Amino acid sequence: MNTFSSKLLEDAVNQFAKLPGVGKKTAIRYVLHILKEDNVQVMDFGNTIMRLREEIKFCKNCHNISDNEICEICSTNSRDKSLVCVVEDIRDVIAIENTNQYNGIYHVLGGVISPMDGVGPSDLNISTLIDKVRNREIKEIVLALKTTIEGDTTCFYIFKKLKEYELNVSTIARGIAIGDELEYTDEITLGKSIINRVPYSGVHA
Amino acid sequence: MYLQKLLLTNFKNFHEVEIEFSEKINCFVGNNGMGKTNLLDAIYYLSFCKSYFNLMDSQNIKHNESFFVIQGTYVKDDNSENVYCGLKQNQKKQFKLNKKEYSRLADHVGYFPLVIVSPDDSEIIIGGSEIRRKFVDSIISQYDKVYLDNLINYNKLVFQRNSLLKRFAESRTYNKENLEIWDEQIVPLGNEIHKKRSEFVDNFKPVFEKYYKFISLNNEKVGLEYNSQLSGNDFKKLLSDNVEKDRMLQYTSTGIHKDDLVFMFDGFPAKKFGSQGQQKSFIIALKLAQFDLLAEIKKFKPVILFDDVFDKLDHLRVEQIIKLVSDNNFGQIFITDTEMQRINNVFEKVKSEHKIFNVDNGAIIMSNV
Question: What one-character-per-residue DSSP string does B35-84 give?
Answer without folding.
Answer: SHHHHHHHHHHHHHSS-SS-S-GGGGBPTT-SEEEEEEEEEETTEEEEEE
